[in-house]
Write a structure and sequence with these properties.
mainly alpha, two-stranded antiparallel ribbon, 2 strands
């Protein structure tokens, strides 16, 4: 049970990093303009935002697969409940 809590917490932190860097990249000017103006997003220059976003995205994808693997039986049971026919409705 502890591993699930740790994994979920790490996944949440990485998700917040991806969201933060994604917002910064959305509002960032083009690469040349960012270099010329010295643009930063909360102190992060464009190239660092791009790198952090890519690395944290890959980490998040890996954690999602691990999370799904650990919780597969729970997911399977939830899908059974979701698609179970109600005998009273027949």
């Amino acid at each position: 049970m502890k591993i699930r809590a740790i994994l979920s917490t790490v996944l949440l932190v990485v998700f917040l990093i991806v969201v933060f860097t994604g917002i910064g990249l959305y509002f960032a000017p083009s690469g040349e303009m960012a270099k010329k103006t010295g643009w930063t997003f909360f102190g992060f220059p464009l190239f660092k935002l791009e790198r952090l976003h890519a690395v944290s995205g890959f980490i998040m994808a890996g954690l999602v697969f691990i999370h799904f693997g650990i919780n597969f039986n729970l997911y399977k049971n939830e899908m059974k409940q979701l698609f179970k026919r109600d005998k009273r409705a027949q």
